[in-house]
Amino acid sequence: MSPAPSPLDRYLRHRRFYEVGFWVLFELVQATGNSVTVIMDVRRAGLPYAAWEPVVWEFSSCLTILALVPLLLQMDRRFPFRFATWPRSLLAHALATVPFSLLHVGGMVLLRKLAYAALGGRYDFGDTPRQLLYEYLKDGRGYAYLLALFYVYRFFLLQMQGEASLLAAPEDAPPVEPVERPERFLVRKLGKEFLVAAADIEWLEASGNYVNLYVRGHHYPLRSTMAALEPRLDPKRFARVHRSYMVNLDHLAEIEPLETGDARLKLRDGTPVPCSRRYREALRVRAA
Questions:
Q1: What is the pLDDT of residues 172-203, one digit of tens each?
Q2: In sequence order, which residues have a C-beta less than 8 Å from that of residue 156 and are 6 or more positions away?
């Protein structure tokens, strides 16, 4: 019987749902707070704006930012900040603030024009070059703020769940095991380090710039691609079963063929893993 999942494990199972929910709630709170503040400023200054206008301004901006979050994440996956490549990544992200700002301005102006038209008004963006510069100065800071928020979140998440890495050869001595085919992985978690035997890995799943190593109900992200990691694992033990999945044959319990030509695998602890038709026959022969 597998152990009951911890709160962290339950969170990770539904991580995408919680992350999307966070960004939606975050932007709604931002829009609501900003709307109240602007309404108070408008009334204090005696400006001739209806109460709904600041609400339209702020919600159109935040909704557009929310739509751009996936693009910012994709940009970070393409140019992650690493020690060896941070100047290149910094330049790429600095340049990306320009289209980010243009998309933000274009989206919010469109939403404002639609909202004003629906409410019987007309939205005027103002002096376009001046307003674009003004918005870019805000959007550049906003881009950096969102990116920093991503990294803070990832840092604490990796600290909580642990992050795996390959054992590197020491500088002044021979490696304790073959670096080309590691027998163990180093895991850092909450300031501590421990080793995970490759034989204990039950299955692997590609996830962006990481490959998640699943070990006894826990998973540890390894910064690598499946294509780079596959040749470094023991081919007698590990089998590729899908573009994004590998399994440890010692933990494979069942292969269930599907009408589509694919298969559904079940591991000894009951975990289901997909198997595409491309790998199904080779897996059946190896598991026989």
A1: 545 445 556 778 898 988 778 889 999 999 99
A2: none
**Residue from 69, 94, 97 nearest 153 by CA:** 69
CA 178 – CA 167 distance, rounded (Å): 9
Q: 4 versus 29: which is more confidently predicted?
A: 29
Going along the chain from its start, the domains and CATH numbers come out as: 7-161 (no CATH), 198-287 (2.40.50.1020)
Most confident of the ranges 161-165, 178-182, 241-245: 241-245
> Of 148, 150, 134, 167, which Cα lies nearest the Cα of 61?
134
Q: What's the pTM value of the predicted model, to 2 decimals?
A: 0.71
Dihedral of CA 150/152/156/158: which sign?
positive
Mean pLDDT within 251-280: 92
CA distance 230 to 240: 8
Token digits of residue 225: 């691609």
